[in-house]
Write a structure and sequence with these properties.
Blueprint (H helix, E strand, L loop, with lengths): L12 E5 L2 H4 L21 H4 L10 H9 L7 H4 L3 H15 L3 E5 L2 H4 L10 H16 L3 E7 L5 H7 L6 H16 L6 E5 L9 H5 L9 H26 L4 E7 L2 E4 L4 H23 L4 H9 L10 H7 L4 E5 L3 E4 L7 E3 L2 E3 L16 H15 L3 E5 L17 H19 L4 E7 L19 E3 L11 E3 L1 H11 L6
Parallel strand pairs: 1-2, 1-12, 2-3, 3-4, 4-5, 5-7, 6-8, 7-11, 11-12
Antiparallel strand pairs: 9-10, 13-14
């Protein structure tokens, strides 16, 4: 068989990615209800240290946040005002040549409390305008149904996904937006980084963890509910939009053993299996035996209803998408762990790190692409990858983010090599194509974008948009289909 030497297929989907709760703002406009991320405050780095702490853990804590106090700073409520500036921002994406734009719909913008009988028309109309603007420029929307955004009412009423009631409510929401946007959106994702619930029960599943007796039991039961909701959303999408493609999404963490000691290798394999368990269920359609063994060991007993196994098996995803920022190192020995993107591991002496200590590993992306394609044999889509960094505006107004160009160039090179080696990779959306509020730390100063937004961690600034050096670099990458880096 003759294989092309070109790295990227002609229809490769280049673009950028954001999430509603990190860019839209307007948290109390257009009929939107409160979401779980609207309750997460900014904590300065000197007070936070290296910890990522977003979870609201009890009803009392939630009530105090709702009551508010002087000096409260909830950055995700303001975002970067995409709600009012989407036309300007999309025009900049179009100037870069985006083929696709990954975004999310805010569930509480459509169903403010999550359980209304009728959707909020103002919310639906807003996304109509956004999709129309994208399509005007020939940009394909890639839409995430749930990107860390659960209506707060469902946390108060049900303790989030710990209660199976959310399955029907989510499916109703999914069917509503599928029906509304069936002529505008052909690429969908169900849950963003579905595995994050294990590390952050509140953000991943809307669980107030102090309100449950057994954390692991509650989290894995919530995940089962999300798996069922995801499979039913896949079914609905295929029925309502037959020509659409719908995928799952994983926070991928490639794990290396610290040494060739079999104990280290076994620990790394165990971590890898636990990471891929989530995609095993959504791509293969059943719980893998190693997780059933883990549940038995931990005395976790999932409440499955009759028909659940058939739902999972019969409604698997069309493609697998994932985020990739860094790799991790596992060891059987007790050692001080480094923190990154919710995960911890031993420091890798062979890799450099970002300003936030995330270890930069482009070859790890190639490794993970090959491993995941070997495992699943379905199309892959990298929907988050990028460098969070402190950007400085020079006296002449330039933002020379060569470090970001170097990071992205190295990762795209490895993507190309993986494609040449037979991996079916359909697209790449760089995370935070425009500066946005950090998911993990609620910082504005942790910048990812090709486009600078004039705003600081406290909401000060003009919100003016300005192109960084990486803007024109990425524009050329897209124009040459990845041939010129």
């Amino acid at each position: 068989m003759c294989m092309s030497q070109k790295r990227f297929p002609e229809d490769f989907l280049w673009g950028g990615a954001t999430a509603a709760n990190q860019v839209e703002g307007a948290y109390n406009e257009g009929g939107k209800g409160l979401s779980i991320f609207d309750m997460v405050q900014f904590v300065p780095k000197e007070e936070r240290g290296n910890d990522i702490e977003m979870d609201v853990k009890s009803k009392e804590e939630l009530e105090a946040l709702l009551a508010g106090k002087e000096g409260d700073n909830f950055p995700k409520r303001r975002g970067i005002d995409f709600y009012h500036r989407y036309q300007e921002d999309i025009a900049l994406f179009a100037e870069m040549g985006f083929k696709t734009f990954r975004m999310s719909i805010s569930w509480p913008r459509i169903f403010p409390n999550g359980d209304e009988s009728q959707p909020n028309e103002e919310g639906l109309a807003f996304y109509d305008k956004v999709f129309d603007e994208l399509l005007k420029y020939g940009i394909e929307p890639l839409v995430t149904l749930s990107h860390y955004e659960i209506p707060l009412n469902l946390v108060q009423k049900y303790n989030g996904w710990a209660d199976r009631s959310l399955v029907d409510l989510f499916v109703n929401y999914a069917e509503t937006v599928f029906t509304r946007y069936k002529d505008k959106v052909k690429y969908w994702l169900t849950f963003n980084e579905i595995n994050i619930s294990v590390f952050s029960p509140y953000i991943g599943s809307g669980i107030l963890i102090d309100e449950v007796e057994n954390k692991e039991q509650a989290v894995y039961q919530a995940l089962h509910h999300q798996f069922i909701a995801s499979a039913r959303a896949v079914k609905a999408c295929h029925e309502i939009i037959p020509n659409a493609k719908i995928g799952c999404m994983l926070a991928r963490m490639e794990v290396y053993p610290e040494t060739c000691n079999p104990d280290d290798v076994l620990v790394a394999l165990d971590e890898d299996q636990k990471n891929l368990f989530f995609t095993d269920v959504q791509v293969r359609g059943y719980y893998p035996s190693f997780m059933l063994s883990y549940f038995e060991e931990k005395n976790i007993k999932l409440n499955m209803l009759p028909g659940d196994e058939e739902i999972l098996l019969n409604h698997t995803v069309d493609f697998l998408s994932f985020s990739y920022y860094m790799s991790m190192v596992a060891t059987a020995n007790d050692k001080e762990k480094e923190l990154g993107n919710f995960f911890t591991g031993v420091k890798n002496p062979y890799l450099k790190a970002s300003d936030w200590g995330w270890q930069i590993d482009p070859k790890g992306l190639r490794i993970t692409l090959k491993k995941m394609y070997d495992r699943y044999q379905v199309p892959l889509f990298i929907v988050e990858n990028g460098l969070g960094a402190y950007d400085k505006m020079e006296e002449d107004g330039m933002i020379n983010d060569d470090y970001r160009i170097d990071y992205l160039k190295a990762h795209i090179e490895q993507m190309g090599e993986a494609i040449k080696e037979g991996v079916d990779l359909i697209g790449y959306t760089s995370w935070g194509c425009i500066d946005l509020i950090s998911a993990g730390t609620s910082e504005m100063s942790k910048r990812y974008g090709f486009i600078y937004v004039d705003q600081d961690d406290y909401g000060n600034g003009t919100l003016a948009r300005k192109k960084k050096k990486s803007f024109n670099w990425y524009k050329n990458v897209i124009a040459t289909n990845g041939e010129e880096l």
